[in-house]
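Retro notes, item 3 of 5
We never archived the inputs for the phosphoenolpyruvate complex last cycle. Fixing that now. Sequence and ligand:
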Amino acid sequence: IDARRPLIAGNWKMNMDHLQSIALVQKLAWTLKDAKFDGTSVEVAVFPPFTDLRSVQTLIDAERFTLAFGAQDLSPHDSGAYTGDISGAFLKALSCTYVIVGHSERRQLHGETDEVVNAKVLAAVKHGLVPVICVGETEAELEEHGTSAVPVAQTKAALAGVPVGTPVVVAYEPVWAIGTGKVATPETAQEVGAAIRAAVAEALSADDAAATRILYGGSVKSGNIAGFLRQPDVDGALVGGASLDPTEFAAIARFPD
Ligand code: PEP
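Structure as it came back at the time:
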């Protein structure tokens, strides 16, 4: 299904200032071009810090790079007295396609609850951005609830009130696998991916579930991406650390080609 064209998404986190972002996007685009990547069978997206977005937009536009981009977070509000926050309207005005919502670092370091994540998902949808909704269990939750319960509950909570037919992406990122070098097995990613797809069917519709891309994230590298992409319910990856190295990220992105 074309709607499920694999998505390889690079979350830069709080790395790269706006000048460094230009160098990184250029190097990534040239590396992909050298490898004859044309973006038809795989979509590649980068998620730089807010302060880089204007530079990244200008560069991608000017060079007609086949790269998508988005932000790492947004405010649940449209505008107003929310010092330091960024509206989805501003992101849309910068031609962002995507916005990450509910990354485990936001949940853990900024106390984002399922309710906050849901409000942000609704704000993204309202402004025409595709939310990349991050779900995943901590090590303690894994021991207490097993593999799928927490990601499924987080998916349902995030999608409350989202209209049927809304494009969304869900990224399964076990918290214990983020930035740790510990990686889930492809079989676990498949098991949770299938459970998340069933949750999307329940929250939205069967058609939406069939069209929704479900990503795996957590210590993805060029050496382990293939096993994940072979799984029927894994439609790409959300990549943190390895997305800062353009050669390595391009190698991950080229894999399904
Ligand atoms: C992430 O932060 O979304 C992530 C998956 O990080 P890493 O690839 O570094 O584990």
